[in-house]
Amino acid sequence: MSITANESGSYDSGQALPFVDSRLYTDQSIFEEELGKIWKGSWLPAVHESELAAPLDFRTITVAREPIVIVRGSDGKVRAFRNVCPHRGNLIVRKPAGNLALAEPSGNANHMTCMFHAWQFDSFGRCVDIPRMKQGYQDRLTKADVALTEVRSEVAYGGFVWLCLDPGAVSLAAYIGDAFGIMREELDTEPLDVFHYHKAYINSNYKLWHDTNSEFYHDYMHYFNRATSMMQKGYFERTYTAFPHGHATVGSMEVKYDAYEGVAERPLSFPGMPRNGWKMVDLFPGATFNIRGSSLRVDTMTPLGPNLVMIEFRGLGLKRDTAAERHQRIRDHNTIWGPFGRNLHEDLLGITGQGVAMRPGTEPRHILHGRRENNTIHDEIGMRHYYQEWGRVMGRSPSDPGRAHGLAAE
Amino acid sequence: MIAIDQQESVKAAVRELIYRASLLLDGERFGEWLDLCAPEFVYRIKAYSPEIRKEMIWLEHDRAGMQTLVEMLPRHNTDHGQLSRHATVYTVAMDGERDGVSAVTSFACYRTMLDGINSHLDAGETQLFLIGKYHDRFRLEGGRPLFVERNVLLDTRRLDKGSHYPI
């Protein structure tokens, strides 16, 4: 089920020139509220299953300040747990990734060991050892009392591990709905594999990065996109489709990569992907799946403050790639993406400038989301739809965050 | 095979070439930098990710590709902060099999800010941008060393806004 522009709510349809109040990007109390209502209540793509390929492989991440460890159990199933020792609240697994078969200095192989007092947990989250338990706790505590707290997780949509901290939230399938319909064949026909990872700290609000991924009007900033896309047939026919829960997709076109000096077209693709095609799926509150011909880029975000966000960038190809194919996908990916790519640096400069102009303490201002072009590529429906959902979840008007969402003035 | 009595002078020439290349890169004199490179030159920026536990290539071009990359810079919006490379050549070694030389150079690259964030507040401030090592290979042409390969192996993996410039 998709949503048309007219159906997407009062924020979008009720204003002649929709705008967002910049306090959404600067206010500490709004940010704290977002962590609870949005980031703890949403399904988030965390890592890719290829990062946890073998039993006992693990990855550590942070969601809304909460440390999480994701482990592929000895039974092959991926699970996620709060990465906090139930004894004295220390972080348990400290490395970004690894395999539990390698014993830590305080513990045994195959276990997650808190280095502080050597409490040990297996890959199912069960507590398996408490040093001198009987002497210290007599019969007042058992290992069963102190298992790690499991977090809802699911492997889906291209092999990503999705997490949700809210036990009462809707299922992942209900949360995503049909938003991946445009990319289902590319993502799920055969296994994918991560070949690129890097991260960036940017002094800007997380929503501004999602906005950049949700509007294409900023292609004027990119010489590469002007030459290879905006000047080419089909660009202005690309269309946005909005979905429940704030998600949106952007339809494909054939990019003319060789219109940029020194760049060749992209012969490799994904199952179902048109040659040199370009599709995007933007997911509320802060993830983007972006396929450009031969490579899939996935952005995920960890908000760290109203004016600080960590963005993680992954590049993926097909698991069955030959060495030559993988090399080509990496070259294609790096042309515009990656820390030395032509476009990514420009995009990050863009939100850095917004972060300067809208840092905490600056005067509130109106940020326009008013372009309407029948949902085509320079229409700002993607952002409007996002903030409609933001208002619904937060119970605040995006145009006046001190007012309740859905009032007539919107 | 480079004659033993010539090896010390070749090593000195390689060290000088690496430092000269650093000065040319610092000065954004990219054409002159590429003049120090053989036609078969290959440039790569690489890093190892402990997150995905893989070696990654973040930039790779042949000489023509690097030429195009730097020639296209004026068409791109970019951070115009100046990069300064502080390099120390650790080792220079003769390649016993071929008439070649390899070198390992440790470097730190600083960025003196201009317009990357807020020019009024930040311009003139110098920040550490990244550290790593150059793994270079050379061949001799008329007794003069030329770069045939530069692998920039980065220790720094959080590059924030990143860069459009060769390191």
Features:
heterodimer, A: 410 residues, alpha+beta, Naphthalene 1,2-dioxygenase Alpha Subunit, Chain A, domain 1, Rieske Iron-sulfur Protein, seven-stranded antiparallel β-sheet, 10 helices, 19 strands, 26% strand, B: 167 residues, Nuclear Transport Factor 2, Chain: A, 4 helices, 25% helix, globular
Structure report:
The complex is a heterodimer of chains A (410) and B (167). Chain A is an alpha+beta fold and 410 residues long. Chain A has helices at residues 10-13, 28-39, 133-137, 172-176, 184-188, 206-214, 223-230, 323-336, 342-357, 381-394, and strands at 19-21, 44-48, 57-63, 66-72, 78-82, 97-99, 112-113, 120-121, 127-129, 150-156, 160-164, 192-202, 240-243, 247-250, 278-283, 287-292, 295-305, 308-318, 366-368. In chain A, strand 17 (295-305) and strand 18 (308-318) form a beta hairpin. The model of chain A is unreliable at 5-9 (pLDDT under 50). Chain B has one domain: Nuclear Transport Factor 2, Chain: A. Chain B has helices at 4-26, 30-34, 63-71, 119-122; strands at residues 37-49, 54-62, 82-95, 100-112, 126-141, 144-154. Chain B has a six-stranded mixed beta sheet. The A-B interface holds A 50-51, 59, 95-98, 194-203, 221, 223-224, 260-262, 314, 330-331, 334, 338-342, 344-346, 348-349, 352, 356 and B 45, 47, 49-54, 56-60, 64-65, 68-69, 71-72, 75-79, 116-118, 157-164.
